[in-house]
Amino acid sequence: MRYPVNEIFETLQGEGRFTGLPAIFVRLQGCPVGCSWCDTKHTWEQQPQDERPLGDILVKTAASSCWAWATPEAMLATFAERGFNAKLVVITGGEPCMFDLVPLCEALHGAGYSTQIETSGTFEIKVPKETVITLSPKVGMKGGYAILDSALERADDIKHPVARERDIEELDALLARCGEKPVYLQPVSQGKRATELCIKTCIERNWRLSVQLHKYLGIE
Ligand code: SF4
């Protein structure tokens, strides 16, 4: 099994339940969901002319649409070569659940890593049971994808992007489909009104705030 990789890097997880924990990020290429405020639009297309050797992807210094095929073994070799210390691997995108992630997660678990997937919930989630699923539902985006019941059920927590009241109402409708889950509200683009709304709602509902710590710290 091989996967299209946009980038691999080590940093601190800036969002959700593992905020502050060192993590290796594997960003896969490809996403048809079409969120207008997406901060990784360069991962949307998997264009043949943008394919590169894996070595080129690992030395990228800026966001780009270049990507490389990589097997789980090649990823593990990369972690070792680059001297990564983190024991959590976050598989993100793009939309990582476009791919069967079982072989990748099993290889990572076999090498002593734990895994977390960040997904929009619009594709069936194929992972081992140990993998932590953070579902960040993207409702009503231009790609026209619906949030799947199977994804809601599998999710270990919900990290919901919030810009306005309507986003809270959409979240309530999703939670009515899957029952209680740990919820993290995340203000879109660090906006002041969005942040105030998230703080108010978290206190009212006993939910948690996720502020994209890496953006405040100015790290990747
Ligand atoms: S699902 Fe994620 S990667 Fe895809 S468009 Fe939305 S924010 Fe961007």
Quick overview of this protein structure:
By secondary structure, the chain is α/β, with parallel strands linked by helices. 29% of the residues lie in helices and 22% in strands. It has one domain (3-217): Aldolase class I (TIM Barrel, Alpha-Beta Barrel), CATH 3.20.20.
Q: How much beta, percentage-wise?
A: 15-25%
Question: Which structural class best describes the helix and strand composition?
Answer: alpha/beta
Instruction: Characterize the overall form.
Output: globular
Give a quick account of the main beta sheet: strands, pairing sense, barrel closure: 9 strands, mixed
Bin the helical content.
Answer: 25-40%
Bound molecules: iron/sulfur cluster
**CATH fold description:** TIM Barrel
Rounded mean pLDDT score: 94
Low-confidence stretches: none
Going by CATH, the homologous superfamily would be: Aldolase class I
Number of domains: 1
CATH level-two architecture: Alpha-Beta Barrel
Number of strands: 9
Q: Rg, please?
A: 17 Å
Distance between the termini: 28 Å
Spatial arrangement of strands, main beta sheet: 3-1-2-4-5-6-7-8-9
Binding site for Mg(2+): 40
InterPro entries: 7-CO-7-deazaguanine_synth-like (IPR024924), Aldolase_TIM (IPR013785), rSAM (IPR007197), rSAM_QueE_proteobac (IPR027609), rSAM_sf (IPR058240)
Subunit structure: Homodimer.
Catalytic activity: 6-carboxy-5,6,7,8-tetrahydropterin + H(+) = 7-carboxy-7-carbaguanine + NH4(+)
